[in-house]
Design a protein that fits this description.
Layout lengths: L3 H35 L6 H19 L11 H11 L5 E2 L21 E2 L2 H17 L12 H18 L23 H5 L9 H7 L1
Antiparallel strand pairs: 1-2
Length: 209
């Protein structure tokens, strides 16, 4: 027969090992929950793109000759930046002498240059205009919202629309049909205010008879 003391000691050892394992699991779970709660929320696609655009523009200012600070940046520098981006464009913009000028689907390649699409530039300016103010810039001094930038984007839109044979006009929203209930017409005005129409006068009806 085995001594009683040996069996009790083995049970105690098992209990201690189980409790230690439970403590390890709980501590690891709390650590993971703390790491999850402390991690910053994931940025949306718009916010991530806006941050990349802002960093790209900041790098452009640093590489400018001479280097420019954000406080000295004007709409003229923004126009230079937009023209600089044209070399990375992927949109074919046909010249007027090109046989495919105004053709939305050219049947063959041509040597016309690639440019940044108007829609991409318009969205880029919108993100940079918001990022400028989020980084301490004053709205009245925002170079991305200057009139010269709006005129440039309009020129690019018109030029690319004619060259590519694509309309950039926004679709007009359909107005909802007029309501059949018009207040103030007929008996609907009396019922809408909670006052019921009076019944016909019996005396006047008897006199008419």
């Amino acid at each position: 027969m085995e001594p009683i003391g040996d069996s009790s000691s083995s049970e105690n050892n098992n209990t201690n090992s189980n409790s230690s394992s439970m403590m390890m699991i709980s501590s690891s779970a709390s650590t993971s929950s703390m790491a999850t709660s402390s991690s910053p929320p994931a940025l949306s696609r718009y916010e991530s793109q806006k941050r990349r655009d802002w960093n790209t523009f900041g790098q452009y200012l640093k590489n400018h000759r001479p280097p420019l600070s954000l406080s000295r940046c004007s709409s003229a520098h923004v126009l230079e930046f937009l023209r600089y981006l044209d070399q990375f464009g992927k949109t074919k913009v046909h010249n007027q002498i090109c046989p495919f000028y105004g053709h939305p689907n050219p049947p063959a390649p041509c040597p016309c240059p690639l440019r940044q699409a108007w829609g991409s530039l318009d969205a880029l300016i919108g993100r940079l205009r918001a990022a400028f103010e989020e980084n301490g810039g004053k709205p009245e001094a925002n170079p991305f919202g200057a009139r010269a930038i709006r005129l440039y984007l309009r020129e690019v839109r018109d030029l690319q629309s004619k060259a590519r044979g694509i309309s950039y006009e926004k679709k007009k929203r359909k107005r909802p049909p007029p309501s059949l209930h018009q207040p103030g017409v007929g008996s609907s005005s009396s019922t809408s205010t909670g006052v019921l129409p009076l019944p016909p006068n019996s005396s006047s009806s008897g006199a008419n008879q």
